[in-house]
């Protein structure tokens, strides 16, 4: 019986270990972005809005339906439906067609096409924003995971510190206060761990929101990456943004729409026409008073409006002028904002890259050596526990700042791509594991055009 319980306990232990050690799947950034662009309902709504205006543009140049007319003319009240008593009685059919002044239909189509085009570019702009949101959330998840890793590592190291402190205290070489300090620092780490776990759940919910999938869908681990170099200068990025940014093209379409609306308003000073044709069927009349052979007759006519309402037409001209000026100034403001965003983001990218190189190549190795020396000195009572604890926390903070700088670099790069309108670098080289002290190889990446929301917090 005793052997049975031993076997069961051993089986449970190995089963739990196997379940605990099962690795989470690694998330692929390209697949996440693709799923977001495919499934996000707000993007689908924008696409439907564009289709709506595209169908409107097909209606803009259509003529009004022709009007058909049938009437019985000059009938006798005493003898209705009798056509051979009075020469004025007749059966009449006719057709008429409204014709706008020459050029109006083409300009109306042009206005509608420009409006639909602006919504089409708005879809591409929304794709850029959605891609940026997914990438930012992706790298925030990576930073949180790295934070959890170093918190776990520090909890184990603090446990070792407590063991060393208790050993020294038991032989009369330490003080009980050091044990309390170690316990307090461990509690601080546990508090940070709770906060980071909450942040990861919130980021998972935000990513699921962007991908339009259930909010409790688990998100796997995020692979390590190297920091890509930018292949373009600020001037090249600015010119690329003017050529590629969808919002720039959308505002250009709106400015063109305003100009076309102005030409259409000028056409309103000219009349529209209505062409009509009528055919009269008559019957022969032979009475004591009247004799009429009953020849059929027809009527051709044209009518047109008199454009006397000049105030209304001048208001239409002013409206179209204001519309053009508005779109033009919005375009100038956007270009100014793009220039600022590019220069500011490049400066922040340069700072983050230099910080990563400094942390990896200098500060963290030095902090590790300082901590190692402090541990050795504490064992032989050459330094106090506070010095040892301070060395550990200093290294911990530098490690956090390293990972935060790496994540911030990639997030700023995603923001720069959204501002420029293209994918500036190919996907970062994925690394399943990367030593902390190793500097990843950095190679220039080639820019590739993008196929081109609103973040939920």
What does this structure look like?
Helix content is 64%, strand content 9%. The chain is α+β, with helices and mostly antiparallel strands and 457 residues long. It folds into two domains: 24-63 and 107-271 and 314-431, Outer membrane efflux proteins (OEP) (Up-down Bundle); 65-99 and 272-305. Helix 3 (41-60) runs antiparallel to helix 4 (104-170) and helix 4 (104-170) runs antiparallel to helix 7. Residues 1-21 and 427-457 have low confidence and may be disordered.
Number of strands: 8
What sequence of helices (H) and strands (E) makes up the elements?
Answer: HHHEEHHEHHEEEEHHE
How would you name the CATH homologous superfamily of the largest domain?
Outer membrane efflux proteins (OEP)
**What's the CATH class of the largest domain, please?**
Mainly Alpha
Q: What portion of residues is helical?
A: 55-70%
Q: Termini separation (Å)? A: 57 Å
CATH topology descriptor of the largest domain: Outer membrane efflux proteins (OEP)
Q: Structural class, from secondary structure content?
A: alpha+beta
> How many individual helices?
9
Mean pLDDT rating: 80
What's the structural domain tally?
2
Which regions contain 5 or more consecutive residues with pLDDT less than 50? Answer: 1-21, 427-457
Itemize the secondary structure elements and their pairings.
Blueprint: H1 2-21, H2 29-39, H3 41-60, E1 67-73, E2 90-99, H4 104-170, H5 176-211, E3 224-225, H6 234-244, H7 246-267, E4 273-281, E5 285-286, E6 291-292, E7 297-304, H8 310-379, H9 385-420, E8 430-431
Antiparallel strand pairs: 1-2, 2-4, 3-8, 4-7, 5-6
Helix pairs in contact: 2-4, 3-4, 4-5, 4-7, 4-9, 6-8, 7-8, 8-9
């Amino acid at each position: 019986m005793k052997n049975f319980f031993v076997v069961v306990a051993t089986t449970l232990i190995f089963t739990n270990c196997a379940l605990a050690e099962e690795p989470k799947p690694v998330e692929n950034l390209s697949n996440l972005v693709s799923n977001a662009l495919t499934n996000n309902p707000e993007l689908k709504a924008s696409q439907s809005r564009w289709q709506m205006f595209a169908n409107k543009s097909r209606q803009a140049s259509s003529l009004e339906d022709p009007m058909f007319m049938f009437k019985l003319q000059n009938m006798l009240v005493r003898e209705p439906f009798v056509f051979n008593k009075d020469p004025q009685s007749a059966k009449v059919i006719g057709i008429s067609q409204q014709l706008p002044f020459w050029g109006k239909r083409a300009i109306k189509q042009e206005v509608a096409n420009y409006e639909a085009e602006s919504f089409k570019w708005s879809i591409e702009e929304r794709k850029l924003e959605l891609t940026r949101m997914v990438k930012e959330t992706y790298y925030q998840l990576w930073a949180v995971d790295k934070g959890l890793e170093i918190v776990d590592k520090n909890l184990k190291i603090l446990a070792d510190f407590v063991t060393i402190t208790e050993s020294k205290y038991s032989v009369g070489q330490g003080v009980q206060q050091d044990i309390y300090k170690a316990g307090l620092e461990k509690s601080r780490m546990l508090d940070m761990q709770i906060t980071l776990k909450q942040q990861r759940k919130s980021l998972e919910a935000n990513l699921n929101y962007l991908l339009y999938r259930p909010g409790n869908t688990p998100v796997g681990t995020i692979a390590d990456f190297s920091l890509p170099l930018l292949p373009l200068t600020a001037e090249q990025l600015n010119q690329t943004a003017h050529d590629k940014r969808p919002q720039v093209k959308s505002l250009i379409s709106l400015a063109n729409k305003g100009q076309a609306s102005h030409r259409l308003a000028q056409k309103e000073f000219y009349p529209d026409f209505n062409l009509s044709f009528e055919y009269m069927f008559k019957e022969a009349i032979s009475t004591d008073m009247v004799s009429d052979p009953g020849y059929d007759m027809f009527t051709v006519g044209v009518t047109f409006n008199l454009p006397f309402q000049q105030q209304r037409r001048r208001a239409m001209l002013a409206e179209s002028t204001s519309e053009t000026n508005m779109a033009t100034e919005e375009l100038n403001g956007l270009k100014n904002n793009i220039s600022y965003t590019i220069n500011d983001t490049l400066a922040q990218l340069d700072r983050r890259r230099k910080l990563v190189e400094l942390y990896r190549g200098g500060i963290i190795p030095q902090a590790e050596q300082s901590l190692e020396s402090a541990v050795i000195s504490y064992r032989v009572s050459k330094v106090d526990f506070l010095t040892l604890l301070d060395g550990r926390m200093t290294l911990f903070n530098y490690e956090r700042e390293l990972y935060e700088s790496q994540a911030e670099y990639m997030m700023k790069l995603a923001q720069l791509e959204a501002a420029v309108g293209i994918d500036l670098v190919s996907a970062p080289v994925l690394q399943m594991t990367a030593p902390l002290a190793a500097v990843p190889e950095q190679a220039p990446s080639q820019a590739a055009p993008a196929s081109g929301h609103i973040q939920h917090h």
